[in-house]
Amino acid sequence: MVSSITKREYYLPYNLNVFLILKTLFDLIYTMNFSVTSRMNTPDYTRVMFIGLYKKPVFILFSIFGLYLLTTVALDYFGVINYYATQPLLELISGVFLVFAPTLIVIMAVSQFKSNPNFQNDIAYSFSDDGIVIQGTTFKSEISWAHIIKQKEISGFLILYHTKKFGNFIDKSKLSNDQLLFIKTKIIKK
């Protein structure tokens, strides 16, 4: 006796194969365990800090206003305009401060970076579905994905923040596109 095959039965193995392939790809992308080793040096840290500060609208506005003050003081000094009735000492000091405030912040941050020996060595980052294990020469830390509050990409580095001010710098050149996507999908927007 010859059995008849309906269309539904005929397509089931094909659909099942497609489903298994898609599930395998999904599991590969979203369930990864991998490690990278990264070291942040002083010039890279300085560049990341400057770019991070000058991306903020407040620092951009303050710098523009500082440049405005310095320009008007210089033009008044050279007699191009008669803008100030007295010597504009306060405007000069304010303009210099507003223009160089991000530089002062970066200088303080770099001095803290240099004073911490943990930053001068390689740091291994191990990623899994549960979170990140960060290991240096003298420390080991485990952070779950729920404790990563945000991520930023600045100047070739992925920064994973576990507080509003502190984060881990990971060299993006050490990550594949799939690994970067895995990390981004694990971070819950808060």
TrEMBL record:
Q: Does the keyword Membrane apply?
A: yes
What is the protein name given in its UniProt record? YcxB-like C-terminal domain-containing protein
- Species of origin reads Mucilaginibacter xinganensis
Domain named YcxB-like C-terminal: which ranges?
127-185
For this UniProt record, the keywords arranged alphabetically read as follows: Membrane, Transmembrane, Transmembrane helix
Give the signal peptide as a residue range, or say none if absent.
none
Domain of life of the organism encoding this protein: Bacteria
**InterPro entries named among the record's database cross-references:** YcxB-like_C
Segments spanning the bilayer are: 16-37, 58-80, 92-110
